[in-house]
Amino acid sequence: MPFFSACPNRPRQVLLTHSHVFVGTERDYDRAADAYMHAKSQLNAQAMFNLGYMHEHRQGLPLDLHLAKRYYDQALEIDPAAQLPVMLALASLWIRRNYADTFLVDFIDSLPSVYPKADELIKNVVMEEGNATILTLFVCLLTVLYLRERQRRQAAAAAPPPPLPNDNIVN
Questions:
Q1: CA dihedral 10, 32, 45, 113 (to 10 degrees)
Q2: pTM (two decimals)
Q3: Which in 34, 50, 103, 136 has the greatest CB count within 10 A?
Q4: In DSSP terms, which residues pair with 5 in a beta bridge?
Q5: pLDDT digit string (tens) for 5-63?
Q6: Residue 9: C-alpha distances to residues 6, 14, 35, 41 (Å)
Q7: Are 61 and 30 in contact (CB under 8 A)?
C-alpha cells in the first residue's frame, strides 16, 4: 500500500514514497502503481522515479529498462533536486543493461537487504564520538594527500622536459 501524507507547506499536494510496504502489511504493487500513475499525471517527480524503480526491479510492473530510464529522466526534468537519486538509478540501469546476469547486478539487487545492517553499523560503531573523530581525521588526511599528489602532477606536467644527452652537441 502506498504511503500518502499531506505536505504541511502545500496542503493540496500529496507526497508519495516508494515505501508501499509497512510492518505488518502486505505488498500491493498494483495499488502502488495505480497511485504513482495518478500522481505522475499531476507531474509528481517522486511518482515518476518510483515508477521507474518498479519497472527496473520488476515490482508490480513488467521489466522495461527503457521505460524506467524515461521515468527517471522525467523525474529529473520535473525536479532538478532529484539529480543524485536519478544519477544513481541511471548508473544502476547502465550496469543492469551492460552486465546482466553478473555479480554486479546481484550486488545491486542485494543492497536493500544490506542497508539495514549497514545503517545499524554506522549508528553503533562509526557515529560514536571517538570513532567519528578518527574517521573525520582520516578523511582529512586522504584529502590532503590527494591534493598534494594532484599538485605534484600538475607541476610535473607544466615543467619543460629535461634535455636529451645529445641535444648539447652542435654539428
A1: 110
A2: 0.55
A3: 50
A4: 15
A5: 333 433 333 444 444 444 456 788 989 999 999 999 999 999 999 999 999 988 899 99
A6: 9, 11, 22, 21
A7: no
